[in-house]
Specification:
Elements: H1 5-9, H2 21-42, H3 46-50, H4 53-62, E1 69-72, H5 79-87, H6 122-136, E2 142-147, H7 154-166, E3 170-176, H8 187-192, H9 199-213, H10 218-236, H11 239-244, E4 248-254, H12 258-269, E5 274-280, H13 288-292, E6 317-319, H14 324-338, E7 342-346, H15 356-361, E8 366-368, H16 373-385, E9 389-395, H17 396-399, H18 403-411, E10 418-422, H19 439-443, E11 450-452, H20 457-470, E12 474-477, E13 484-486, H21 488-491, E14 512-515, E15 521-525, H22 530-544, E16 549-552, E17 555-557, H23 561-570, E18 573-581, H24 586-596, E19 604-610, H25 620-626, H26 631-644
Parallel strand pairs: 1-2, 2-3, 3-5, 4-5, 7-8, 7-9, 9-10, 10-12, 11-12, 15-16, 15-18, 18-19
Antiparallel strand pairs: 6-13, 11-17, 14-16
Helix pairs in contact: 4-12, 6-7, 9-10, 14-20, 16-18, 22-26
Length: about 650
């Protein structure tokens, strides 16, 4: 017998409206059980989704998702929504290759009215839908669900400002759990957390109640006071803020009380104006490990591998050890000990970017600005203009949001800000909203900005040291997880491989030849794909007897022009490899260089990189296999070039 009888038998989502309160509460437990079981197996965003189970039930009981638009901000809390909108039978495929996305997706379900993976977007999108509804004469409701972490983003306040000014019928639900990914910081978080039900205030209330109860007519006065308490609290709590935006503020209420949620949602439906319903929830609700450590359980890795087994590491290659993010954090701490000008900045991700040790060791030189990437970059520009050396660590996909600030506030003024783009390239199960697929393309066009792509953690350490010392804007891009470095065992396979001796200077605009071939083909690569290129060259040599050279460009801008032009002159063919969009990326830069020097006539050039499409979610090894960026794919391209240059 199924341990989720309601979830298995109900016709969803319509069947929810016929359930009693007790049945909804039982269904909430079934949802939590299913989410915990699936996410602890597949990986995913556990704590955020557990915190909105009752809210999701109340929304579907109060609204018609076939007509009404319910927009989830960020979308990492949408697992209960997926389960209750016709996807329970496929929920076991969550974040699996070819399975359900970990975020809302318009192509996945008609109930996902807006695709999302970045924060602070829901109110803007919902306001656009409300405006479209009114222009079309519609009557449907539009609801945006936004967390207090996402509310810290400036885009959310821009949308609140316009929504209040337009006066559209719109419901915004503020899910206040005092968390984004890490614990929220800043004045807004403290303001939302104000609570007039603690300590001194509670003692005063109890004393006044006792006094009034002894006086004639005191019970009536006490009743009036209790009725006015909500208005009094709203003046000193977030109600004051949202009323200033011309929203009708309701709350705060218990976000795990289905009955109260439905009552207030029904009240909000009747108001012909912008409404903000403030609910308080607990991230990770119902799963004690997640409740006790919501940051850790915000997103967890899969405990069971996907359908494709992890291939064994090639002989002579091994993980570099700490992983890029941790290596970055360690290296920055070492630099900060010697250079008091270094200041670290992140946008709500101190743990994810490896900056948690820096925050503990140098709290006065660290800032977590919340989900405010634009502000993070301009804040860094202000520090740099005052003589400091700020280092901004933000995931590649989120750094896109600060493009104007990078151009206008940093590079136009040629300020020494180091931008560290973590999670560059393919990131796996989080999918297309999170792949760092475009940073080389959109950064290359910016004057004054140097761009480096270290191949492993050791190279990242060296590149960071160089970047901080350069005195100009620099961007470092590096992938998620651990890199691989060449072990001594691999050198026994080819005397052509050069063994690095200690830290290598990361000279601006200079690359490194790591494999001297005996053929007329050279692989030129950037970033983490360099070492798989060397492995592919050696494997192909064992098969064909022809060894290609491998050159680590290190710098995407400025390119190591002199070295690349020399390699182009010495070889008949080049294979260019990168884990970035082929349009406008590293290989485009090399092609531009060769074209400018009229070297493309006789030279055969083949490119491997990310195609002009959004890459789906799935294990990184599977995605690289699909786009031919693994060792077999590089080897196949190399063999093809050999056959054409024989």
């Amino acid at each position: 017998m199924s341990d989720t009888p309601l979830l298995s038998s109900l016709e969803l989502p319509d069947g929810l409206k016929r359930l009693s309160l007790e049945q909804k509460q039982a269904l909430a437990q079934e949802l939590r059980k299913t989410i915990i079981r699936t996410v602890t197996t597949n990986g995913g965003h556990l704590a955020p989704s557990l915190g909105v189970v009752e809210l999701t039930l109340a929304l579907l009981a109060s609204f018609d998702p076939a007509k009404d638009a319910i927009i989830w901000d960020v979308g990492h809390q949408s697992y209960p929504w997926k389960l209750l909108t016709g996807r329970a039978d496929r929920f076991c495929t969550l974040r699996r290759y070819g399975g359900l996305s970990g975020f809302p997706s318009r192509t996945e379900s008609p109930f996902d009215r807006f695709g999302v993976g970045h924060a602070s977007t829901s109110i803007s999108a919902a306001l656009g839908m409300a405006a479209a509804r009114d222009l079309s004469g519609g009557k449907e409701h539009v609801i945006a669900v936004i967390g207090d972490g996402a509310l810290s983003g400036g885009m959310a306040f821009e949308a609140l400002n316009q929504a209040g000014g337009m006066g559209k019928r719109l419901i915004v639900i503020l899910n206040d759990n005092k968390m984004s990914i890490s614990e929220n910081t800043g004045a807004l978080s403290r303001f939302l957390s104000r609570n007039l039900s603690h300590g001194t205030v509670m003692n005063i209330k109890q004393h006044v109640a006792r006094v009034l109860s002894r006086l004639p007519g005191g019970d009536s006065v006490l009743d009036i006071i209790k009725k006015g308490e909500v208005s009094f609290k709203s003046f000193f709590t977030p109600g004051m803020l949202f009323e200033a935006f011309q929203f009708n503020y309701i709350g705060p209420i218990n976000g795990h009380d289905i009955e109260q949620l439905e009552k207030h949602l029904e009240a909000a439906k009747k108001l012909d104006m912008p409404v903000l319903l403030h609910i308080r929830t607990r991230k990770g609700k119902g799963y004690m490990p997640a409740e006790n450590d919501p940051s850790h359980f915000h997103g967890i890795s899969a405990s069971v591998p996907d359908e494709i087994p992890v291939p064994p590491q090639p002989n002579g290659w091994k993980p570099s050890g700490p992983g890029f993010s941790k290596a970055f954090g360690q290296a920055l701490c070492s630099l900060a000990e010697k250079d008091k000008r270094i200041f670290a900045i992140t946008a709500a991700m101190p743990e994810g970017t490896g900056l948690e040790p820096f925050r503990k060791r140098f709290p006065e030189r660290f800032a977590d600005v919340g989900i405010c990437e634009e502000h993070a970059v301009t804040f860094a520009a202000g520090l740099a203009a005052s003589g400091y050396r700020p280092v901004v660590a933000i995931y590649s996909t989120f750094m896109q949001r600060a493009y104007d600030q990078i151009i206008h506030d940093v590079c136009l003024q040629n300020l020494p800000v180091t931008l560290c783009l973590d999670r560059a390239g393919l990131v796996g199960e989080d999918g297309p909203t999170h792949h760092g697929a475009f940073d080389l393309s959109w950064l290359r066009a910016v004057p004054n900005l140097a761009i480096a792509a270290p191949r492993d953690e050791d190279a990242l350490r060296d590149a960071l040291s160089t970047a901080v010392a350069l005195g100009q804007p620099v961007a470092l891009r590096y992938p998620r997880g651990s890199g691989r470095r060449i072990d001594t065992a691999l050198y026994s396979r080819s005397a052509a491989l050069k063994l690095p001796e200690g830290p290598a200077p990361y000279e601006l605009g200079r690359g490194e030849l790591i494999l001297q071939g005996d053929s007329r083909v050279c692989i030129i690569a950037a970033g983490q794909r360099v070492l798989p290129c060397a492995e592919a060259a050696l494997s192909t040599a064992e098969k064909t007897g022809r060894l290609a050279s491998v050159f680590d460009a290190r710098w995407v801008k400025p390119l190591p022009e002199e070295q690349i032009l020399a390699l182009a002159a010495e070889h008949d063919a080049l294979l260019l490899v990168e884990e970035n969009s082929l349009m406008g990326g590293f290989s485009s830069a090399v092609l531009e260089l060769l074209s400018d020097h009229d070297m493309l006539g006789r030279l055969k050039v083949r490119r491997l990189g990310l195609p002009d499409r959004f890459i789906p979610h799935g294990p990184v090894r599977r995605l690289r296999d699909d786009v031919h960026l693994n060792v077999p794919g590089i080897s196949a391209a190399l063999e093809e070039i050999f056959s054409q240059t024989a």
